[in-house]
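Because discrete structure vocabularies remain unfamiliar, we first show an illustrative case, written as a sequence plus integers encoding its fold.
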Amino acid sequence: MSRIHNYISAQQQIENQIAPANRNLRNGSVKLFAKLLGDFLATRTIRSLRSSNEVVLQGVVEILLDPPRTRVPELYLVMDGKKQKGDGRYAFPDMFVVSNDNSESAVVLELKDIHLSGLWNGAHGGWTKWTIPSYEELEALAEKVAVMDEASMDKMRYMYWSDRDNKYTSTTIGKMRKDALAQVKRYVKVIKKGRAEKFEDSGVRDPRVTVKRTGSTLFSFVLIAVGGRRILYEAGKPEKMKFSYSSTLA
């Protein structure tokens, strides 16, 4: 991650976008932040995109969020205090942004990373050792994705490995967008509850944040990196909260 941070600092065009993108994000608009993320990913080669994953994407987003003390990766949530561990009791949103000196708003982000190889195999109906795309095929697909309209992109099939089902699974980009937005909406309902004080409570149980009984606004967004060449985004409805969140970090 330090290598990514140093690279961003050396790219003046990207560096100049950070402040306005973060300011707009806290005011309820994700468009500039999506462009900032897309501009950074566009500097990566096709070969480096082969090894990308959501952990890497989360790390890049974390570095682009400013100031650093306001970013909380994998916020600790108790989704349903009446359930047991392993039965949907806990959840960990990809990124939570708490209030800073200039804003009482908070932001929750759901991130998805769609690989070029998964798109290629989705288009060819399978994933076997005989269907490994070449560099040239991935490069051609990346160029196609870069200019494709969103309606056509939503219909593209995508294949990925499902740990839950222990097999490759086929879906569409459109369904992934819909499911991700539904997921972030579930996070919003729980974050609005404030801190989970008792074992049976639902809410936030993360030592990295402080909960205050002052009103604030919670924004929610989905950011989907498609083949490292496009950023799709969705926005949930802004929600008024009876609480505000700040960082316990210095």
